[in-house]
């Protein structure tokens, strides 16, 4: 017995597509090859987006199945082709001969951006797979995705939904050893000691799987009272610290920047990033301060107040906007601010209380294809080189960044997903996971710059 290479497997999948009509074959092969132009042309010619083809999903999923093109695109993680298929009225609930809907498949493979793309398009959040009866809540619990659980629960998905084995999502969390998920479910009112078809409670399952800390916690909390949404409230005195978010969504229609006229569109979906960041960092124990649609003067005032805050032990700052160059972004009054000038506010001389302490900037704005020459303010007699600063950009210099009106930016979605799954890692490890997650979610390649020496920092 021998196995096929990836290339041979793709060729085999293409050959299986030959059971459809000739024109449908062209569409199927275009999806398999992730050929955006050909997919768009075929759909524009009226080809059916709901055809099913034989596709190898790997041994984990039972090998080859006849599945719809949308599930193929989800498996490949191609957001652009998924968008084309959805716009062409692809059936969001079509399974073919496979157990999962496209949404269930996206949740299982942790394709965050695609999950919210499908949900915003109207995918059934209460769908269950046909083999095990697992719901979206079961799969989210299995994958450790707290934010998705919150989102699904807010859409009416029951906390105690049972699969064919009688397992609730809490059973699933116990089986996987995901204490954070178990604590969230119980905190939201999930039944602590439900019994499955084998007579086992989540505590029994955790003990059987040798997750003793979780088993003991579940046993000790048999009568815990529900505290819905308690996770959202952070006591300032008990928080780990503050996270600052500068999010710009609305702008003048036309601005003049660097002697160029530029049209600025509303950043639809930006509010979702604010919600994602608030939920994620609240869950991690931080207080989140969000500032929406501020002018340049208001932004400077906010930064000056942060600079003068004597209680800061670190700086975590998010900047989300339209960009003009690799280091400049627009405020909501159409003015440009320079990221380098902002960093100068937090150098050792300018902000001595943060000397030797970590200062982390997460930046999402298009960094353009043309490099800009940044002019220093001549009124400043000298500049200090930054120390202990890390800047994480959503894209490399010269490249745009991606945002969806329905689900926000790939950058913030991916970061929230990573922090939800791996909340207590060092920043370098977090960035490495962010890099991989953005690739999985069809995003750009993030970039991280470091001004040494940098103190160790973890969320």
**Nearest-angstrom radius of gyration?**
24 Å
**What quaternary form is this?**
single chain
Q: Work out the helix count.
A: 18
Number of E-type strands: 14
Structural notes for this entry:
The chain folds into three domains: 124 residues, Ankyrin repeat-containing domain (Serine Threonine Protein Phosphatase 5, Tetratricopeptide repeat, Alpha Horseshoe), CATH 1.25.40; 99 residues, Alpha Horseshoe (Serine Threonine Protein Phosphatase 5, Tetratricopeptide repeat); 217 residues, Rossmann fold, CATH 3.40.50.1460. Helices cover 37% and strands 14% of the residues. The chain contains 18 helices and 14 strands. The N terminus is likely disordered.
Task: Note the topology.
Layout: H1 6-16, H2 22-32, H3 36-44, E1 52-56, E2 64-68, H4 69-76, H5 79-87, H6 102-108, H7 112-120, H8 136-142, H9 146-154, H10 169-176, H11 179-187, H12 202-208, H13 212-220, E3 242-247, E4 254-257, E5 260-263, H14 270-283, E6 287-292, H15 296-307, E7 315-320, E8 328-330, E9 336-338, H16 339-344, E10 359-364, E11 389-393, E12 403-404, E13 408-409, H17 410-421, H18 427-440, E14 447-451
Parallel strand pairs: 3-6, 3-7, 7-10, 10-11
Antiparallel strand pairs: 1-2, 4-5, 8-9, 11-14, 12-13
Keywords: ANK repeat, Repeat
Domain Caspase family p20: 239-370
GO cellular component, one term: BRCA1-BARD1 complex
């Amino acid at each position: 017995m021998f196995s096929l290479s990836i290339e041979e497997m793709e060729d085999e999948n293409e050959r299986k597509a030959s059971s459809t009509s000739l024109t449908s074959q062209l569409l199927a092969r275009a999806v398999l090859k992730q050929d955006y132009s050909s997919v768009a042309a075929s759909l524009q010619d009226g080809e059916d987006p709901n055809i099913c083809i034989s596709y190898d999903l790997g041994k984990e999923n039972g090998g080859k199945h006849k599945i719809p093109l949308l599930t193929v695109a989800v498996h490949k993680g191609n957001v652009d082709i998924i968008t084309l298929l959805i716009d062409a009225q692809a059936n969001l609930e079509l399974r073919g001969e496979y157990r999962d809907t496209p949404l269930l498949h996206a949740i299982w493979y942790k394709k965050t951006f695609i999950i919210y793309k499908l949900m915003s398009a109207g995918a059934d959040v209460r769908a269950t797979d046909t083999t095990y009866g697992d719901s979206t809540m079961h799969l989210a619990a299995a994958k450790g995705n707290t934010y998705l659980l919150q989102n699904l629960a807010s859409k009416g998905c029951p906390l105690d939904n049972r699969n064919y084995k009688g397992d609730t999502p809490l059973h699933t969390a116990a089986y996987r050893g995901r204490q954070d998920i178990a604590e969230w479910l119980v905190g939201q009112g999930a039944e602590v000691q439900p019994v499955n078809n084998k007579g086992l409670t989540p505590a029994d399952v955790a003990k059987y799987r040798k997750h003793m800390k979780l088993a003991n916690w579940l046993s000790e909390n048999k009568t815990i009272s529900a505290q819905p949404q308690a996770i959202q409230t952070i006591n300032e005195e008990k928080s780990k610290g503050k996270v600052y978010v500068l999010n710009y969504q609305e702008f003048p229609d036309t601005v003049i920047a660097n002697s160029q006229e530029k049209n600025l569109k509303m950043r639809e979906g930006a509010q979702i990033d604010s919600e994602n960041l608030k939920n994620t960092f609240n869950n991690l124990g931080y207080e989140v301060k969000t500032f929406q649609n501020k002018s340049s003067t208001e932004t400077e005032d906010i930064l000056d107040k942060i600079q003068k805050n004597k209680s800061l032990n670190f700086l975590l700052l998010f900047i989300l906007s339209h960009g003009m160059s690799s280091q400049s972004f627009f405020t909501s009054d159409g003015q440009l601010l320079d990221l380098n000038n902002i960093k100068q506010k937090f150098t050792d001389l300018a902000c001595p209380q943060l000397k030797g302490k970590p200062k982390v900037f997460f930046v999402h704005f298009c960094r353009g294809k043309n490099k800009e020459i940044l002019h220093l303010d001549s009124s400043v007699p000298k500049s200090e080189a930054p120390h202990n600063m890390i800047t994480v950009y959503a894209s490399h210099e010269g490249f745009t960044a991606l945002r969806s009106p329905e689900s926000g930016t790939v950058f913030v979605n991916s970061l929230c997903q990573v922090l939800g799954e791996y909340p207590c890692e060092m920043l370098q490890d977090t960035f490495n996971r962010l890099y991989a997650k953005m690739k999985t979610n069809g995003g750009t390649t993030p970039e991280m710059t470091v001004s040494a020496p940098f103190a160790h920092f973890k969320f």
